[in-house]
Amino acid sequence: MTPAASQFKKNATALTADLRHRALIRTALKKYEVVRDDKVSRFQNWQSARQSAAEIKWDAVNHLDTHLVEFARNLEARGTQVHWASNAAQAREIIIGIIQERKAHSIIKSKVMTGEEIHLNDALEKAGFEVVESDLGEYIVQLRHEAPYHFVFPAMHLTRGEISDLFSKELGTAPTDSPEELTMIARRVLRDKYITADIGISGANFGIAETGMISITENEGNARLTCALPKVHIALMGIEKILPKLEDLALFLPMLATAGAGQVMTGYNTMYGGPRQPGEADGPEAFHVVLLDNNRTQLLADAEQRDALHCIRCGGCLNVCPIYKNIGGHAYGATYQGPIGAVITPHLRGLQQWKHLSFASSLCGACTQTCPVKIDLHHHLLQSRRNAIAQKPVWWEKPLFQALAFLFNHAGLFSLGMKLGRIGQVFHPLIKNTGIDPVRAWTRSRELPKVAPQTFREWWQTRK
Amino acid sequence: MKITLFIPCFIDACFPKAGASAVEILERLGHTIDYPKELTCCGQPAFNSGYWEESRTTAIKVLERLKDTEVVVIVSGSCGAMIKNFYPELFAGTEYEEAARSLSAKVYEFSDFLVTKLGVGDLGAQFPHKVTFHDGCHGLRELGIKQQPRKLLAHVRGLELVEMGEAESCCGFGGTFSAKFPMISTAMGENKYGSALETGAEYIVSNDSSCLMHIQGLLDRQGKPLRTIHLAEVLNHRQLPHS
Ligand code: SF4
Prior knowledge:
The complex is a heterodimer.
Chain A: H1 3-16, H2 19-40, H3 46-62, H4 64-77, E1 81-85, H5 88-101, E2 106-109, H6 113-117, H7 120-126, E3 130-133, H8 136-143, H9 160-171, H10 179-196, E4 199-202, E5 206-208, E6 213-218, H11 222-228, E7 232-238, E8 242-243, H12 249-261, E9 268-272, E10 286-292, H13 296-300, H14 316-320, H15 322-327, H16 338-349, H17 351-354, H18 356-359, H19 366-370, H20 377-391, H21 397-408, H22 411-431, H23 440-443, H24 456-463
Parallel strand pairs in A: 1-10, 2-3, 2-4, 4-7, 5-8, 7-10
Antiparallel strand pairs in A: 5-6, 6-9
Chain B: E1 2-6, H1 9-13, H2 16-28, E2 32-34, H3 44-48, H4 52-66, E3 71-74, H5 77-90, H6 97-105, E4 107-109, H7 110-117, E5 130-134, H8 137-142, H9 147-154, E6 160-161, H10 177-180, H11 182-198, E7 203-206, H12 209-221, E8 227-230, H13 231-235
Parallel strand pairs in B: 1-2, 1-3, 3-4, 5-6, 5-7, 7-8
C-alpha cells in the first residue's frame, strides 16, 4: 500500500468510529439537501439546464486551446499580465516573483483552491511573507493550521463553540455562541489586513474567453476587498475554468449557487477585467492572471475522463456522497475531496499513488446523479480501477480472479464449491473474526450470509 | 413467452427463495422458464475490481449461452445493470461488441420486466406487514427503476409501505468495497438501517439481494429486530399452506 493509501485507511477507520463527527456532518449536509432541492425546483427544468451546462463546458474543454488564447489576448488588451504555469513549482515561482518585484510583504487572500493545490501559503510563508486568508472559513482553518475540510465549506466540521474557543485562544476575544458575533470578530481583524496588504491573491470561478474577464462568486464580500484594495491583484486559476461567452454566466452563476450552497444566487458575483484604467478612481495598479496546468492537460488527453475538466467545483458531489458523509474531508489527504477528488487526484498526482480513492467507493452513483455539469463521476472511478490494475495488478488478486473466472465457467465446480461452503460454514464459528478468519474484513462488523440448505440449482433439479 | 432466467451466484447460493419465487410468479402468469444452469455469475466482481480481462472470461460464456434467447430476466438490479449497461462497455472494440449490445437490449430486471414489459401489477400476493423499500443503487441509477417495485407492492394485500428518508442512499455493500473498506461500508450500512428503523417497519424489501445481504449481516450482528426480504418473495407470498 502506498503511504497515501495507508494514511487514508487509518483516517477512515478513526473517523467512522467518531460518531459525533459523523452526526455533525450528516446533519449539516441534510440541511444542504433541503435548501438545494428547493432552489433546484425553481429552475424551469433543472435537467435541461444540466444538459446545456454540460454542452457549454464540453465546448470550452474540447476547444480549450483557442478559448485560452482568446482569453489571454482579451485580458492583455486591458493591461493584465497573463502568466502560464505548467506545474505547481512554476506557479509558485511566478507568484513569488511578482511579490518580490513589488518589494511587497503582506498578502491577503480570498478563497483559492488552486492555491491549496500548489501549497501556496507554505511557499509564501517560507519566502518570508505574511499571508492572511480573508474568507471566514479559510481564516478559521488557517488559524487551526489545517487544510480546508471541504472545498466549498472549509470549516464545516467545526461547531460554533469550537470556533469561539479558537478565536479566544488565537485572538484573545470573549467567548460567544452567536454566528454574527463570530463573523464580526473575524471581520474586525481582517479589515485592517485589507487596508495594509500590498498584494491580494484570489482564485477564479470562471474565466470568460470572449471578454477576458474573471468571475468570482462569494458570500462575504471578502474577495471584492481582496481584489480591489491592494495595489496588486494576482488571480490563480486552473486552465479548465474557461467559459466561452459572457452570456454563459446567466446559466452558470445560478447553477453554481444552487448546486453549491442551495442559494438562488450567491451574495456577490463580480467580474474582474483588468487593472485600474486611465480615468478610473479605484482598482489595483497591476493585475496578474496565472493560468495553471499542473497535469490538467494530461487529463485533457484522456478522452474517456476528459469531462472531469467540466467541474465548476460546486462541491455538490461531496455533499451527497455517502463516503464523504461518513469520513469527512480531511480523511482524503487530497486538495479536492469527495468524488471529484477521487476522479482527478490520480490524474493530477499519479494513478498508482492515488488509485485507492477510486476503490474507496461503492459506485452508488449519487455523485453522477447530482453533478450539475453531468460528469460521469462514478464510471470514471471504474475506469481508473481498470487502468490502475492493467498497469499494475495486485499480486494475489490477479490469480484469485483468474481462479474465480474458471470456477464460474464450470458450473459443476461451482456447485461443489457451494457444497464445500456448506460444510465450511459449520466450522467457521471456530475462527470467526479471529486473525486466521479469511473473511475477517466482513465478519468484523457483519454476520456472513449462509449457503442455503438447498441452493437454487438444487431446487430447480427437484422440480424436473 | 419463453423467459430465460439468469440467477446470480449469490442468489443461487444464499438466497434461492428469491429466484424460486420469481420462477413461480412467472409460471403462474403462464410463461415458460428456461434456466441456463451452466451460467453462474455475470462477472461483476472482477469487473468492479478492475480485472476486466478476467471479467470477460466469465461474461463471454454468458453472451454465448444467452445469444439465442427471447428475453432475459434477472432477479437483481446490480447484475442486471452489469449485463445491460456494462457488458457493452466491457466488450467495446472486441469481436463480442455486437453480441453484448443485442443481449443488452433484451435484459430486464425482474420488477421492471413485470411492470414495463408484461404490464402486470396485481400478482395476488398477501403480506400483512409494514415494510420499507430500499432502492438498490444499480437498479435505481443505472437502470432507472424506481416506481416499478412500488407499483407491484401497492397491490399486495395487507402490506403497508412506509418510505424511509434514506431510501435512495447506498447500503454500503459495493461488492469488494465492503471488504476493502469495511469501516466505511459498515458506517454506510448503519445509516441505512437506521433510517429504515425510524419508519417502524418490520421488513426492508428490495429488488437486490446483495444489498439485503449486507444490511441483514449488520442487523444480525447488532441484534436489531428488523428483517430483510427480496421483493420477489413478497410478491410470491400468499396465505397458502405451503407458503
Ligand atoms: S464534479 Fe460536479 S458536483 Fe462535483 S464539484 Fe465538480 S461540478 Fe460540482
